[in-house]
Amino acid sequence: MSNKPRVLSGIQPTGESMQLGNYLGAVQNWVQMQDGYDAYYCVVDLHAITLEPPEPEALRQRTRIVAAQLLAAGLDPDRCALFVQSHLPEHPQLSWVLECLTGFGEASRMTQFKDKSTRAGADRQGVGLFTYPILQAADILLYQADQVPIGEDQRQHLELTRNLAQRFNARYGDTFVVPEAFIPKAAAKILDLQDPTAKMSKSRPDAGTIYLSDPASVITRKIKRAVTDTDGEVRYDPEGKPGLSNLLAIHAALTGASVEAVAKEFSGQGYGALKGAVAEAVVAFAEPFAARSQELLDDPAELDRILARGAERARAVASVTVADAYAKVGFLPAAVG
Ligand code: AQP
Hints:
Bound molecules: adenosine-5'-tetraphosphate
Strand content: 5-15%
Structural class: mainly alpha
Distance between the termini: 30 Å
Largest sheet: 3 strands, parallel
Shape: globular
Number of helices: 12
Helix content: 40-55%
């Protein structure tokens, strides 16, 4: 048993690739946290059917793609447990108990549900979309995570997770670690390039989202066409100049500089020069990343072995948590033999 603090986070296998916001807002931190933490990272495929469910083969392929991309980003199966959520029935098992502790009004206040259900349209609002933050709470609490590295968009869900952990603990006795959010300062919310009032997302139109599998020419075009403003001054001002500030944040997060330093470097140069430099920085990251991801995808048997090892490590923790929680709730243990 490791005495390092534990970290857990997940990413959905929606779309054919992760997008730049997933990487800068979350995955970059996952990679950094592998050494100081006992790290569990999960491809949350159960969450990927909450909107329009993909074709079964597409879902399988997307799950492998995200896993390959996480490894290409720098996750090391010897230093973290990388696994697929649906390989562990413990996730829905715990989720049910947490659903029964969640208020209907409490779940209705989740802004991601409001956003996604509005975008999905009234006829495609499934109950799964409504309850997915509770499954997400189960994903986290199962592993007794101390820290959860996420983008700003997930802060409210983490707050729900904390509330549910505290509620369960108060009712049934100390069972769950109450986790803390770990949100990066610099790239907590990468914005849509075409609509900088919204976060960059796989479920938004393509033109505003940079996929890490996009070819260099597509990345460059998307950045050159990014919506900015008309005053022509390069300045970091997320409120007044969200589009431009987003470009500065992307550049800063990829190069390790501060947004202020990037703004200073490009001040007086016009938006074209900044966009060119941002495109270059994204391409310099995305090209080798895509090549490495493809190499890993070319050996699906090895990828599946890595995921099986990760699931085994995850199960060792998750099964203990579920057994404890179920016993505390009062479910009759199944007799052996
Ligand atoms: N734009 C973003 N900026 C910073 N962080 C972000 N994250 C997502 N978008 C941004 C972080 O990425 C992690 C994994 O996200 P996810 O794919 O599991 O779910 P999501 O937040 O719903 O991401 P998408 O791209 O918007 O997917 P769809 O459109 O399929 O729902 C999370 O930690 C998230 O904070």
